[in-house]
Design a protein that fits this description.
The protein is an alpha/beta fold. It has one domain (7-204): Aldolase class I (TIM Barrel, Alpha-Beta Barrel). It contains eleven helices and eight strands. The chain has helices at residues 15-22, 34-39, 45-53, 70-81, 102-110, 123-133, 145-150, 155-166, 183-190, 200-204, 213-231, and strands at residues 7-11, 27-31, 61-64, 87-92, 115-120, 139-144, 172-177, 195-198. Strands 1-2-3-4-5-6-7-8 form an eight-stranded parallel barrel, surrounded by six helices. Helix 5 (102-110) runs parallel beside helix 6 and helix 6 packs parallel to helix 8. The protein is elongated and about 90 Å long. The N and C termini lie far apart (67 Å). The relative contact order is 0.12.
């Protein structure tokens, strides 16, 4: 097993997959969001959360508010926080109008709600939220490194700067969110990021770590050949039709 300092959190909302990953010793926590829940066919938010929490009791797990109104967001956050001591409440950095959530984050942190501030994409946002969380309980800041990379921006120096910003605050951990490939786990580890959220598809690739590259090349050639055979592809030269046929 590869040795990592960064903690791996499983990202998803498929109950069966979450319970399967709960038995994987590399998985130290879980994160969800409304989009993942919808994709997984979750229709009852509260029932789903309570069902999962019957099993996952000893590792951190994040559930997100979904209101766009800050007062209602607060009500949702307080209910979600009541579901378990291992629960972290995800609060987006702004609402859909772009209004900052900082005041709400400060209020919830003062009430000792464990938070996961999510959907951050800039260091300015990271800097703005630190004072809101600094005197509160354990909390996370989710910086979406994968989405940064999607825009053509190298996320590594950005994540390193964010790590440096948080060094003075032992209660705040940085999450490398929305990774795109296995390499991101090692990048997150190398810059000192505390946590990385990983989908089951990426986790499955961990069995490739250290694989002989010549052997991997041969496996790739075999895959292409086998798929061509299974598809029945042929480029045999067709014989010309004879006159009158």
């Amino acid at each position: 097993m590869v040795s990592l300092n960064v903690k791996v959190f499983a990202d998803g909302a498929d109950k069966a997959a979450m319970l399967e990953l709960y038995n994987n010793p590399i998985v130290k926590g879980f994160t969800t969001n409304p989009t993942l829940m919808r994709q997984a066919g979750v229709s009852d938010y509260r029932a789903f959360a309570h069902d999962v929490l019957q099993v996952i009791r000893d590792r951190p797990i994040s559930f997100e508010v979904f209101s766009d109104d800050f007062d209602e967001m607060e009500e949702q956050a307080l209910e979600i926080a009541s579901w378990g001591r291992n629960v972290y409440v995800k609060i987006p950095i702004t609402n859909t109008l772009g209004a900052p959530s900082n005041r709400l984050i400060s209020k919830l942190a003062a009430a000792k709600v464990q938070l996961n501030v999510t959907a951050l994409l800039t260091l300015v946002q990271v800097r703005s939220v630190i004072p809101c969380l600094a005197d509160g309980p354990s909390s996370y800041v989710s910086l979406f490194a994968g989405r940064l990379a999607d825009t053509g921006c190298d996320p590594v120096p950005v994540m390193k700067s964010a790590v440096d910003m948080l060094k003075a605050h032992s209660n705040i951990e940085l999450i490398w969110a929305s990774p795109r490939e296995l390499l991101n786990i090692f990048q997150a580890n190398s810059v000192g990021c505390h946590i990385i959220t990983v989908t089951r598809d990426v986790l499955r690739k961990m069995e490739l770590i250290g694989k002989d590259l010549t052997e991997y090349s041969l496996d790739t050639v075999k895959m292409f050949r086998n798929d061509a055979v299974k598809a029945g592809y042929s480029l045999k030269r067709r014989t010309a039709a004879t006159p009158g046929s």
